[in-house]
Design goal:
Layout: H1 25-40, E1 45-47, E2 57-60, E3 72-83, E4 86-90, E5 100-104, E6 107-113, E7 119-125, H2 126-139, H3 150-165
Antiparallel strand pairs: 1-2, 2-3, 3-6, 4-5, 6-7
The site of nickel (II) ion has 5 residues, from helix 2.
Length: 169
Protein backbone atom coordinates (compact mmCIF):
# COMPACT_ATOMS: atom_id res chain seq x y z
CA UNK A 1 0.00 0.00 0.00
CA UNK A 2 1.31 3.43 -0.94
CA UNK A 3 0.70 6.10 1.67
CA UNK A 4 0.48 9.78 0.76
CA UNK A 5 3.39 11.82 2.13
CA UNK A 6 2.53 14.25 4.92
CA UNK A 7 3.80 17.77 4.22
CA UNK A 8 5.30 20.49 6.38
CA UNK A 9 2.60 22.15 8.47
CA UNK A 10 1.19 18.89 9.80
CA UNK A 11 2.01 18.73 13.54
CA UNK A 12 2.87 15.00 13.29
CA UNK A 13 6.17 16.03 11.66
CA UNK A 14 7.20 18.17 14.61
CA UNK A 15 6.58 15.91 17.58
CA UNK A 16 8.76 13.06 18.86
CA UNK A 17 7.50 9.68 17.64
CA UNK A 18 6.56 6.79 19.94
CA UNK A 19 9.02 4.01 20.66
CA UNK A 20 8.27 0.65 18.97
CA UNK A 21 7.86 -2.18 21.48
CA UNK A 22 6.01 -4.85 19.48
CA UNK A 23 7.83 -6.60 16.62
CA UNK A 24 5.06 -8.44 14.79
CA UNK A 25 3.61 -9.03 11.31
CA UNK A 26 1.84 -5.68 11.38
CA UNK A 27 5.23 -3.95 11.79
CA UNK A 28 6.70 -5.94 8.88
CA UNK A 29 3.77 -4.95 6.65
CA UNK A 30 4.11 -1.31 7.66
CA UNK A 31 7.83 -1.33 6.82
CA UNK A 32 7.06 -2.91 3.41
CA UNK A 33 4.50 -0.18 2.79
CA UNK A 34 7.03 2.45 3.85
CA UNK A 35 9.56 1.23 1.25
CA UNK A 36 6.82 1.19 -1.37
CA UNK A 37 5.70 4.71 -0.41
CA UNK A 38 9.30 5.97 -0.39
CA UNK A 39 10.04 4.57 -3.85
CA UNK A 40 6.75 5.94 -5.21
CA UNK A 41 7.73 9.38 -3.93
CA UNK A 42 11.24 8.94 -5.39
CA UNK A 43 12.98 9.30 -2.05
CA UNK A 44 16.01 7.58 -0.53
CA UNK A 45 14.72 7.75 3.05
CA UNK A 46 11.37 7.88 4.82
CA UNK A 47 10.33 8.13 8.46
CA UNK A 48 6.94 6.90 9.71
CA UNK A 49 5.70 10.38 10.77
CA UNK A 50 5.97 11.33 7.09
CA UNK A 51 3.06 8.99 6.40
CA UNK A 52 1.22 10.25 9.47
CA UNK A 53 2.31 7.45 11.80
CA UNK A 54 4.07 8.71 14.92
CA UNK A 55 6.25 5.66 15.58
CA UNK A 56 10.04 5.40 15.64
CA UNK A 57 10.50 3.63 12.29
CA UNK A 58 12.54 4.72 9.28
CA UNK A 59 13.59 3.13 6.00
CA UNK A 60 16.60 4.05 3.88
CA UNK A 61 17.86 2.98 0.47
CA UNK A 62 20.43 5.39 -0.91
CA UNK A 63 20.80 3.25 -4.08
CA UNK A 64 17.08 3.66 -4.90
CA UNK A 65 16.34 -0.04 -5.69
CA UNK A 66 19.70 -0.57 -7.44
CA UNK A 67 21.04 -2.84 -4.71
CA UNK A 68 18.54 -4.99 -2.74
CA UNK A 69 21.13 -5.28 0.06
CA UNK A 70 21.10 -1.53 0.50
CA UNK A 71 17.61 -1.54 2.02
CA UNK A 72 17.96 -0.49 5.66
CA UNK A 73 15.24 -0.69 8.29
CA UNK A 74 15.79 1.41 11.40
CA UNK A 75 13.53 0.83 14.40
CA UNK A 76 14.06 3.05 17.46
CA UNK A 77 17.28 4.43 15.94
CA UNK A 78 19.72 6.76 17.60
CA UNK A 79 22.96 8.25 16.36
CA UNK A 80 25.67 6.98 18.71
CA UNK A 81 28.76 8.35 17.01
CA UNK A 82 29.52 11.21 14.67
CA UNK A 83 32.69 12.34 12.99
CA UNK A 84 33.75 15.09 10.62
CA UNK A 85 31.66 17.74 8.99
CA UNK A 86 30.19 17.92 5.52
CA UNK A 87 27.90 20.42 3.87
CA UNK A 88 25.64 19.31 1.03
CA UNK A 89 22.32 20.13 -0.59
CA UNK A 90 19.49 18.36 1.17
CA UNK A 91 15.79 18.00 0.62
CA UNK A 92 12.87 16.23 2.26
CA UNK A 93 9.80 14.54 0.79
CA UNK A 94 7.71 16.48 3.32
CA UNK A 95 9.08 19.82 2.08
CA UNK A 96 8.86 19.26 -1.68
CA UNK A 97 10.57 21.57 -4.17
CA UNK A 98 12.86 23.15 -1.58
CA UNK A 99 16.54 22.30 -1.15
CA UNK A 100 19.19 23.86 1.06
CA UNK A 101 22.79 23.25 2.02
CA UNK A 102 22.91 21.47 5.36
CA UNK A 103 26.03 20.85 7.40
CA UNK A 104 26.07 17.44 9.09
CA UNK A 105 28.56 14.90 10.39
CA UNK A 106 30.37 13.27 7.46
CA UNK A 107 30.38 9.92 9.23
CA UNK A 108 27.66 8.63 11.54
CA UNK A 109 26.98 5.38 13.37
CA UNK A 110 23.36 4.52 14.00
CA UNK A 111 22.18 2.08 16.66
CA UNK A 112 18.77 0.59 15.93
CA UNK A 113 16.60 -2.50 16.12
CA UNK A 114 15.72 -4.65 13.12
CA UNK A 115 12.30 -6.11 12.32
CA UNK A 116 12.86 -8.86 14.88
CA UNK A 117 13.80 -6.46 17.64
CA UNK A 118 17.54 -7.26 17.50
CA UNK A 119 19.86 -4.33 18.11
CA UNK A 120 22.58 -3.57 15.57
CA UNK A 121 24.97 -0.78 14.76
CA UNK A 122 25.72 0.48 11.27
CA UNK A 123 28.23 3.06 10.20
CA UNK A 124 27.71 5.25 7.17
CA UNK A 125 29.52 8.07 5.49
CA UNK A 126 28.51 10.85 3.12
CA UNK A 127 24.96 10.30 1.79
CA UNK A 128 24.30 7.31 4.06
CA UNK A 129 25.47 9.25 7.14
CA UNK A 130 23.26 12.12 6.04
CA UNK A 131 20.26 9.78 5.64
CA UNK A 132 20.81 8.26 9.12
CA UNK A 133 20.91 11.73 10.67
CA UNK A 134 18.01 13.15 8.62
CA UNK A 135 15.68 10.19 9.37
CA UNK A 136 16.62 9.98 13.06
CA UNK A 137 15.89 13.71 13.29
CA UNK A 138 12.41 13.08 11.83
CA UNK A 139 11.66 10.64 14.67
CA UNK A 140 12.60 13.38 17.13
CA UNK A 141 10.22 15.82 15.44
CA UNK A 142 13.07 17.70 13.80
CA UNK A 143 13.22 18.75 10.15
CA UNK A 144 16.32 19.59 8.14
CA UNK A 145 15.31 23.26 8.01
CA UNK A 146 16.12 23.43 11.73
CA UNK A 147 19.78 23.07 10.71
CA UNK A 148 19.83 26.10 8.39
CA UNK A 149 19.97 29.80 9.23
CA UNK A 150 16.86 31.43 10.72
CA UNK A 151 16.69 33.80 7.75
CA UNK A 152 16.62 30.97 5.21
CA UNK A 153 14.20 28.97 7.34
CA UNK A 154 11.76 31.87 7.68
CA UNK A 155 11.91 32.48 3.95
CA UNK A 156 10.98 28.86 3.24
CA UNK A 157 8.17 28.97 5.82
CA UNK A 158 6.82 32.18 4.28
CA UNK A 159 6.81 30.62 0.82
CA UNK A 160 5.06 27.53 2.16
CA UNK A 161 2.40 29.64 3.89
CA UNK A 162 1.73 31.34 0.54
CA UNK A 163 1.45 27.95 -1.18
CA UNK A 164 -0.96 26.75 1.54
CA UNK A 165 -3.13 29.86 1.06
CA UNK A 166 -3.12 29.31 -2.70
CA UNK A 167 -4.15 25.68 -2.13
CA UNK A 168 -0.95 24.50 -3.78
CA UNK A 169 0.64 22.67 -0.87
NI1 LIG B 1 12.80 14.11 5.36
Amino acid sequence: MIYPIVKFGDPVLEKPAEKVTVFDEELKKLVEDMFESMYAARGVGLAAPQIGISRRIAVVDITFKEDPNAKIVLINPEIVQKQGRHSQTEGCLSIPDFRENVSRAQMATVRAQDLNGNWFEKMGDDLLARAFQHETDHLNGKLYISHISAIKRDLIKRKIRKLIKAGEW
